[in-house]
Amino acid sequence: ALTDKKDKNYNVWTENLAASVYKQGEQARKLGNNKVAAENFLRVAEVAPNSKIRPTAEYDAAASLMLLKEWAQVTTVLERFRKLYPDNKLNKDITKKLAVAYKEDAKYIKSAEEFERIEKENPKDQALRREALNQAAELYVKAAEKKKALLVYTKIVDYFPVPIEDAIEARQKMADIYLEQGKRKQYV
Fold first, then answer.
1. For the whole prediction, is pTM greater than 0.85?
2. Structure letter (DSSP) for residue 125
3. What is the pLDDT of residues 41-59, one digit of tens each?
């Protein structure tokens, strides 16, 4: 704080400070104190907002907060990460963590949207895509968003006609929704 930002050593000292605070977080995590670990990882942004280690610290803070089941804080940290670092390689994992955190925090629509995003971000992993869409559809049903659930079940049937058992199950869930809505024509 006392060093002029134009000083040639300013950036080096700032990175060292960030690394020091990050190491405190790592030490707390090793000792099993996830609360202190998360606090220290988040403190990196305060002491050195432009440091190279900040994205990793934010990610690790979210992981520690997940262990504490502090879902609202987890989503805040992860949303900020996504906004600040849209091109970071950790973003696919951020999406997965957000899907879980929203689900645990009973924010079913947001969770379903993240599961749909998982499906889009992983075009080559068929099993992950199918499971993500199933989760999204179930969450939309849980949130009473039947229209959105039907759209997702339609994707499941279209994208994954095999194994046939899964496609039949998706069709049955669609039929159940139509019946519940009194839409006999679509039900049949």
1. yes
2. -
3. 999 999 999 999 999 999 9
Which pair of structure tokens corresponds to residue 179?
């019946």
CA-closest candidate to residue 26, choices 16, 39, 13: 39
CB 18 within 8 A of CB 55: no
How far is it, in rounded angstroms, from Cα 24 to Cα 120?
37
Looking at 31-145, list the stretches that DSSP marks H as alpha helix, in order from N- to C-terminal side.
34-47, 54-68, 71-84, 91-104, 108-121, 126-142
Give the tokens for residue 54: 């900040």
Distance (Å, rounded) from C-alpha 14 to C-alpha 52?
A: 10
Rounded to an integer, what distance in angstroms lies between the CA atom of residue 53 and that of residue 103? 29
| Segments of the chain with pLDDT less than 50 | none
Cβ-contact 109, 99 below 8 angstroms: no
DSSP state of 144: T
Contact 3, 10 (CB under 8 A): yes
Residue 183 is classified by DSSP as -
Q: How many angstroms separate the Cα of 59 from the Cα of each of 78, 87, 97, 104?
A: 7, 14, 10, 18
Question: What is the CB neighbour count within 10 angstroms for residue 85?
Answer: 16
Count of Cβ atoms closer than 10 Å to residue 65 Cβ: 27
Length of the chain: 188
